[in-house]
């Protein structure tokens, strides 16, 4: 098992939320593909650099893209969040960076609200 691969317990939670294979050509193993998707998302590696153990990168990318368009990932996220509400504290965090020149403004400069400029 690689670093970002799902454990058996995690896979048991995710598998029922994924779409069932249709008729026609048999689908590549979902668990291997999901592990490949998580590998790319966690490492930030380009799809083309996906290790061979996850299968062809085009298959992994196409499945990720198709499921994103069908809101499968949203369903998975919502279900996992519902099962573990305390984890929501860690899911969304953001950093707002200031512009590189934000600290270099004139000291004591007066900031005039836009509403005052248009009032008269």
Describe the structure.
This protein is mainly α and 120 residues long. The chain has one domain (8-92). Helices cover 47% and strands 0% of the residues. The protein is built from 6 helices and no strands. The chain has helices at residues 8-14, 30-43, 57-69, 72-83, 88-91, 114-119. Residues 114-120 have low confidence and may be disordered.
**Backbone CA Rg:** 23 Å
Rounded mean pLDDT score: 80
Helix proportion = 40-55%
Unreliable segments (pLDDT under 50, ≥5 consecutive)? Answer: 114-120
Helix count, per DSSP? 6
Number of beta-strand segments: 0
Backbone shape:
elongated
Instruction: Please describe the biggest sheet, giving its number of strands, its sense, and whether it closes into a barrel.
Output: none
Strand content: under 5%
The SS-based structural class is mainly alpha
Count structural domains: 1
Distance between the termini: 70 Å
Short summary of the structure?
This protein is 47% helix and 0% strand.
Topology:
Layout: H1 8-14, H2 30-43, H3 57-69, H4 72-83, H5 88-91, H6 114-119
Helix pairs in contact: 2-3
Features:
120 residues; 0% strand; 47% helix; mainly alpha; disordered C terminus
């Amino acid at each position: 098992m690689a670093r970002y691969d799902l454990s058996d317990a995690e896979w048991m939670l995710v598998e029922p939320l994924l779409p069932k294979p249709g008729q026609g050509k048999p689908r590549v193993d979902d668990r291997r593909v999901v592990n490949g998707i998580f590998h790319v998302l966690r490492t930030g590696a380009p799809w083309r650099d996906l290790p061979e153990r996850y299968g062809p990168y085009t298959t992994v990318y196409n499945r990720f893209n198709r499921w994103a368009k069908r809101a499968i990932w949203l369903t998975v996220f919502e279900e996992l969040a519902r099962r573990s509400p305390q984890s929501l504290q860690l899911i969304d965090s953001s950093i707002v960076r200031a512009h590189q020149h934000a600290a270099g403004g004139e000291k004591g400069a007066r900031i005039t609200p836009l509403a005052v400029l248009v009032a008269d």
